[in-house]
Amino acid sequence: MIKAVIFDLDGTLVYFKIDYKNAREQVKNYLTRLGVPEEYMLNQPIFTALERSIRYLNSRKTSESEINKIKEDINKIVYQYELKAADETFLTPNAKETLNEVKRLGLKIGLFTINNRQVTEIVLNKTGIKEFFNTIVSRDDTSAIKPDDEHLLTVTSKLGVKPEQTVVVGDTVYDFQAAKRLGALTIGVEGLYDAAYLKNEGKVDYVVKDLSEIINIINKFII
How many Å apart are CA 109 and CA 89, to the nearest integer? Predict the structure, then answer.
């Protein structure tokens, strides 16, 4: 039986127009100057690339203090882009209405996002949806971010539910990898990727075109 719904933020609940191309390029230039091979950062989200780069640097006996400084510097780079994007963010169609319906069903609601905590708070307050969430886990609130299991497990722990008692709703494969491993029900929202990609690459259980469609799916698992 489903007891909670856990949402991704960017692309799922809000349109967050961050300049990923330039942010990624700036991070790549920073890391390559430290000797990280460029292939460690190809076709990877910024913080996935960072984790891979950290493992490489650890293998080269980089000190803990240096690693912490690198993480801090990368966070500062990305934060600048996130903060700019936060001013231009807006809700996806039917986002607030869908959250309200989930709440009406008596389910707990969680959020997991790779955004900085401060930026996440700005976006949620700006769009008026912060009140819906029983817990919010940004990249600052977990020891490892999605697709690592720890990010999702941090949310389920805070909600007081098991992963298999949750629905995970997102728009990229990175939202679903841990969910599939941990036994959560998964719903992909078309937008950045189409249904075929979400089904084939994300292995999601369901795909919807409009966020409001998740309510009919969830109802099947709570009655």
Answer: 21
